[in-house]
Amino acid sequence: MKMLQIYPEKCVGCKLCELACSFSHFEEFNPSISFITNANFQDEPFFFVSIACFQCEEPYCMEICPAKALKRNEETKAIIINKDRCVGCKMCTLACPFGNITFLERDGVSAKCDLCDGDPKCVKICPTEAIQYCEISTGDFPKKKMFSEIVKEAYRGKTSDQL
Amino acid sequence: MYGYAGKFLHVDLTKGEFKEEKLGEDFCRFYIGGAGFNGYHMLKKMKAHIDPFSPENYICISTGPIAGTFMPSATKTVLSLKGPAGFYISSPSSNIGRFLKYAGYDGITITGCSERPVYLDIFNDDIQLRDASHLWGKDIFTATDIIKEETQDASVACIGPAGENKVTFANILLNKQGTWCRSGDGAIMGSKNLKAIAIRGTKGVKVADPKKFNDLVMDYFRKLKSNPMVPTWNELGLLIGWDAWMINTGKFVTNNSNDTASSEEMTTLYGPEAYKRQARAGASHCHTCPVGCKSALEVKSGEFAGLKFLQSTIFSSIESFGAKCRVGDYNHLLKCVYTINQYGMDNLTFCSKMDLVCDLYEKGIIGLEDTMGWLPRKGFEATMELMELVVQRKGMGSLLAGTWQEVTKNLAKGHEEHVVHLKGTEPANDLRTHICTENFGQLVCPRGGHNMNALSITIVPHRKLNSLKKFAKWIGMPEERINAVVVSEDEAEYVPGFTKWVEDYNVMLLNLGLCNRPPYQQMLDPEACAELFRTATGFDITPEELLKAGERALIMERLFNCREGFDRKEDQPPPKWVTKSTWVDGREIKPLSQDKVNYMLDQYYLERGWDKQGIPRIDKLKELNIEDMK
Fold first, then answer.
1. Which of B161, B210, B276, B339 is 20 to 30 Å from the Cα of A83, by its Cα?
2. Nearest to B70 among A13, A40, A125 (CB)
3. pTM greater than 0.90
4. Residues B246 and B355 placed together within one structural domain of the fold
5. In the structure, what pLDDT confidence band is assigned to residue A146 with cuts at 50, 70 and 90?
6. What is the extent of the structural domain holding B191?
């Protein structure tokens, strides 16, 4: 099973993920209805990070929905909102601690990342591979490797006696 | 509407009124966007001979139909207004344009003057003039942060104390990084008591043929990914040109255009290696652009260690603080850049004026009584001192805060030949050392010594005929004009006529909302642009019509200036370029001859369809269907 893996250190804040998402879902370039949001920070001008639904194992959004409009896709494991069942109560937007549910005012329903049915467009368009779609079982390996490189540099050149 | 938002917003600061104006297909196909939209407003709405600092001046900000989409670089925005020196100013920058589209506008115009300091808050149809008294006096960075807090992270164009004090070369920073600069854009905003413009929205940009648009754009992404120069653009930004066209061509003008800085010294202090070691903290990307040629900068050691900020291009700071003011290593240069960005002033203008003062003082033309006690000298301390004086218009600063014309009158009366400017804007480059479209373009650019409109392959010297012809064909120069103009490798022969087509092409890109830097020039010929336009808007257009719209925008800018009484005499180079030599690494470069300059101007006017005085002919206006604008 695959998940979205975010690498903020690779993110350059180009905002293409937001646009690819809204375009693929709504045929419209509109960051305000994108399911992925790229954040930038006034006090850290070099840092950017994209946040999209974490597809929780115990999704509060699914639990709270009174209309049983949220279901897990068995293949992608993404939580999908059935807009025909959704009554627009917005409880899911309250329940999600991360703000990852979007309420679409003009449609009167909630919407969220559905991993593009296994072919996430944000991953495709990201020019720096700051968002990747990778196997969960080995998904953390690149990060572990990256961090161990940093540790390696700290130890570089020291003999085992010095260590 | 597809591509376009379909609306202009007109703001009257005096009355506190806002009006919307709908756009139709014919208008859009005729003016396209960006510089074209602005030109239309500037000519139609503004009377001639108004005082630029009066309420009658207009600030026009427009973007293009592709802006807001995920086409790489689709966020270019043009700001136009009547500058402090009285000329038509058109400044391009990035990022804010797409937010205009999300708010539901293709462009805005701002006129009048607010009684009290305000900032314009645009959120979809909700337009407010918010009190800015708590922001007035604050530097750009602090004010932008506060406004972003107050507007849920809107895109913010802000002036600093320099703009508030109407320093005639005050600039506007977009989100603390991009600049609308060089010719006093910020001063005009300051004169209107307008501290900032904050834009955000929740509307979307739709395209007429989503599937085809997607395929076209994905192809451009692939092209950029496989462009072998893109990683270097990302790493070095404009410094990619260090060896090819910066050193050895006299780019680093110094000593008031009497000389150029030593290539060896500049390379040691500021070249790519020094940049990577001492200044570069990463790349910075305009929204939607995978190239990322802007800079994330950090002072890595010394007194100012830890200072970090984003910037458009380090190159302009090297040629100003580095070459002209001699502030020293990157540690000091970055501090100067950070400071001038906070104040909101243009670095090239400031440093050129400081350079002039030092030259005049050294020659004994002015003394300490003329500089009101400020000791003219170069270096970091002197630069920081003088910047402080200028932003506050104190002592010497108040003198230098005036236009180049005023500075000439007040400091160099009887010695005007020492002052180097064109139409009130100092040149970025010296035409004596290299005749190329960028440098020649400074003579004829509506705002003076500016060269962004005329960027072409000629920036690298000694281009071969077949490269020139290939590029000319690519940018849409008709076969019979190539055969008439691009006939020899003598730059004085082909550059003037060539410049016309280069300018039209670059403004075509700008009108669409796209970037004209080389990675994009290499991908987007007029045919590609027309296809993008048709696919996005659903409107019919030919490549020729798009190029004509670029030409039309530039002619409107020229007409505006003609209406003010400007003509060939304002296209003349600074006296020094035709009377004095300069030096490049010990090689003497003789001045241009006035005959050569006259010849080049004649060639350009001919190509443009203007008369001998540089005034567009009526048949040219008829050809562009704007004869009613005469």
1. B210
2. A125
3. yes
4. yes
5. confident
6. 7-152+178-200
Pair (B114, B81) in one structural domain: yes
| Min Cα separation B177/chain A (Å) | 10
> pLDDT tens digit string along B392-415?
999 999 999 999 999 999 999 999
> For residue A127, which residues of chain B lie inside 8 Å, CB to CB?
221, 224-225, 290
Confidence of residue B452 (pLDDT cuts 50, 70, 90): confident
Q: Which CATH number do you get for residue B196?
A: 3.60.9.10
For residue range B12-62, list pLDDT tens digits in order.
999 999 999 999 999 999 999 999 999 999 999 999 999 999 999 999 999
Q: Does residue B450 fall inside a structural domain? A: yes
Percent of chain B with pLDDT over 90: 97
Chain B residues in contact with A46 by the CB 8 A cut-off are 281-282, 296, 308, 310
Q: What is the pLDDT of residue A163?
A: 66
In chain B, which residue's Cα lies nearest the Cα of A126? B290
The whole-angstrom separation of Cα A125 and Cα B158 is: 31
The one-letter code for the residue type at B127 is: I
CATH number at residue B481: 1.10.599.10
**Whether residue B349 is found in the same domain as residue B443:** no
Q: CB-based contacts of A22: which residues, under 8 Å, 6+ apart?
A: A28, A29, A30, A31, A33, A34, B204
For residues B473 and B617, membership in a common domain is answered with yes
Are A29 and B69 a contacting pair at CB < 8 A? yes
Cβ count within 10 A of residue B509:
26
Find the mean pLDDT for residues B294-317: 95
Domains of chain A are: 2-155 (3.30.70.20)
| Domain-embedded: residue B255 | yes
Q: Are residues B620 and B472 in the same domain?
A: yes
Pick B287's closest partner by Cβ from A14, A22, A42: A14
Tens digit of each residue's pLDDT (9 = 90 or more) over B474-514: 999 999 999 999 999 999 999 999 999 999 999 999 999 99
Q: How many domains does chain B have?
A: 3
Percent of chain A residues topping a pLDDT of 70: 99
- Separation between Cα atoms, residue B214 and residue B201, nearest integer Å: 23
> Where do runs of H (alpha helix) occur along B159-298?
161-164, 185-191, 210-226, 230-236, 263-270, 272-278
Q: Are residues B403 and B499 in the same domain?
A: no
Q: Quick check: is B432 in a domain?
A: no
Residues B405 and B443 in one domain: no
Give the integer Cα–Cα distance in Å for B80 and B91: 6
pLDDT single digits (tens) B143-162: 999 999 999 999 999 999 99
The string of DSSP codes covering B48-67 is: TT--TTSTT--EEEEE-TTT
B356 band by pLDDT with thresholds 50, 70 and 90: very high
Q: Which residues contact B568 (CB under 8 A, 6 or more apart)?
A: B601, B605, B612, B613, B614
Choosing from B390, B418, B446, the residue where a domain stops is B418
Question: Which ipTM score applies to this complex?
Answer: 0.95
Nearest-by-CA chain A residue for B289? A14
- Asked whether the beta carbons of B540 and B489 are under 8 A apart, the reply is no
Look at residue B612 and tell me if it is in a domain: yes
Which of A14, A40, A102, A126 is the best residue to mutate to test the B interface, defined by the most B CB atoms within 10 Å of its own CB?
Answer: A14
